[in-house]
Specification:
single chain, alpha/beta, five-stranded parallel beta sheet, 5 strands
């Protein structure tokens, strides 16, 4: 599912680039695991600021290691590009770099249980305060222009919890990309549960 989600990120690049504010496209991944979609978003969405989250502390340590390794590789690529006078964002192989040098676009992974609405609310208030400290109504809406999630629904009721967290975190006009195996849970197929839960939260499902 994480690989499928990366494909969806690449397919929706024009839309995600339009979602961002003047300060860039703010991205959050719920249940990030090893963080493949977060790293994909950071590598391919210009000016993205990505926050990977997971509820498992051991997983977060692995995720932090993956981020550090990719940033090290990116810095080496940036140094090579500068030495060969290639323009920013262009590699000699034709690929794209992780991002501009000196710009920390993947934030330190955050421990977050998206099924806990209180934790989601705290995270949202912290992020809104950092980005818009002068906005006294900073908790009235989400602040992430892109919400990512893959393989997050394993128990009955998880679809509703994921949809609620997504609706809370998503900025007005933002986009959520969710990929999950249609595993058997109690009730309708998972895809159907996710659609119903999202529509119940007022989200437009495509």
């Amino acid at each position: 599912s994480a690989v499928a989600l990366c494909g969806a990120i690449l397919e929706n690049l024009p839309e995600t680039q339009q979602q961002g504010s003047a300060s860039g496209c703010h991205v959050i991944e719920l249940g990030a695991g090893v963080g493949l979609p977060s790293l994909c978003a950071a590598a391919h969405i210009p000016c993205a600021k990505v926050l990977p989250t997971d509820s498992n502390e051991d997983v977060l340590r692995v995720l932090q290691g993956n981020i550090s390794r990719l940033q090290d590789v990116s810095q080496l690529a940036n140094d090579t590009r500068q030495q060969t006078h290639l323009p920013s964002g262009v590699e000699g192989t034709g690929g794209c770099c992780f991002n501009d040098p000196g710009c920390k676009i993947v934030r330190d992974p955050r421990c977050l249980d998206f099924t806990n609405s209180a934790q989601v609310g705290v995270l949202l208030r912290e992020c809104r305060f950092k980005e818009q400290a002068e906005d006294m109504d900073f908790a009235s809406s989400g602040c992430f222009s892109l919400v990512l999630a893959s393989d997050c629904c394993y128990v009955p009721g998880a679809a509703d919890q994921l949809a609620e967290a997504t609706a809370t975190l998503l900025a007005p006009g933002g986009m959520a990309l969710i990929a999950d195996r249609d595993r058997p849970l109690a009730g309708p197929a998972l895809r159907t549960q996710l659609r119903i839960a999202a529509e119940r939260q007022g989200l437009c499902v495509q």
